[in-house]
Amino acid sequence: MYSFEIERPATVEEAVKALRIEEAMPLAGGQTLIPTLKQRLAMPSVLVSLSGISAIRGICTDDAGRLCIGAGTTHAEIRDGASGFAGLSEMAANVGDPAVRNRGTIGGSLANNDPSACYPAAVLGSGATVMTDRREIAADDFFQGMFDTALEENEIITEVRFPVPSKSGYSKFEQPASRFALVGAFVAKFTDGVRVAITGASESGVFRWREAEEALAANFDAASIKNLSVPAEGMIGDLHGTPEYRAHLVAVMTRRAVRDAK
Questions:
Q1: CA atoms of 185 and 212, how far apart (whole Å)
Q2: Pick from 97, 115, 197, 211: most CB atoms within 10 A?
Q3: For residue 112, what pLDDT is reported?
């Protein structure tokens, strides 16, 4: 590690101001950033801790019936507080290990947009809206590619607003050491259709599997997608699995998510 300053703002406005300092970086739960600092892959002069901003923590329901989750809310808090949204609650219960679940935050995960993270699939798969200190961004517009989002410089995620589906499920084939998803599938059934989002598989990051969405909208049953598949081209290939293996897992995990949806 090396020397740096740390700012502890109490409001979003103070955080935005602190981030204007040269070489400043935001610190949410630190589950990605701290290991990055230890490896000297990032060397900010100032860390701006967001953990003291009470306005971006907590879970509530708005007038439209959406589940509104503050960006500073931890995975463990979402596990316990999103019980009315089964897919999201169960997904949060299986992120990382207890240490990660009690420190990591939804906002930090989304801002980092790791290609194997679980939350991007939940946000894209439910058609959520990402709120920032400046604007609101639809899930379909937020994810731009691997580790890339629509966030502008010094823009802070403040809240995520989830439409609550009638049924939802998440299934992932995890790397046993990190518990990241080699492939994860999030499915959500609404009155006007079905959304399916896949994480961990593609070199372009999280994506919607629209062919499966169409089939499941007609019949929300795992059998309706048993003959569907995605091409291996563009899938991640590494020591954990070939592109063909990940393409195979996309179909398997999606069927399991549908089967277990509630």
A1: 11
A2: 197
A3: 94
- Give Cα separations from 168 to 59, 103, 159, 180 (angstroms): 19, 25, 21, 20
Neighbour-count burial for 111-145, b at 16+ CB within 10 Å, e otherwise: bbbbbbbbbbbbbbbbbbbbbbeeeebebeebbee
End-to-end C-alpha distance for the chain, whole angstroms: 45
Q: Is 237 helix (H, G, I), strand (E, B) or coil?
A: coil
3-state secondary structure of 219: coil
Distance between CA atoms of residues 35 and 236, nearest Å: 23
CA distance 93 to 76: 7
Query: What backbone torsions phi and psi does residue 15 show, to the nearest 5 degrees?
Result: -65, -45
pLDDT tens digits, one per residue of 8-44: 999 999 999 999 998 988 999 888 888 888 888 888 8
Q: What is the dihedral of CA 169, 237, 105, 171, to 10 degrees?
A: 10
Q: What would the two tokens of residue 255 be? A: 């069927």
User: Among positive and negative, which fits the CA dihedral 151, 70, 90, 139?
Assistant: negative
Q: Tokens in use for 221?
A: 């049953």
Report pTM: 0.95
Which residue type occupies 260? D
Q: In what order do the strands lie in the sheet with 46-49?
A: 5-7, 46-49, 24-27
- Nearest-angstrom CA–CA distance, 5 and 46: 5
* Residue 84 backbone zone (phi > 0: left; psi -120 to 50: alpha; other: beta): alpha
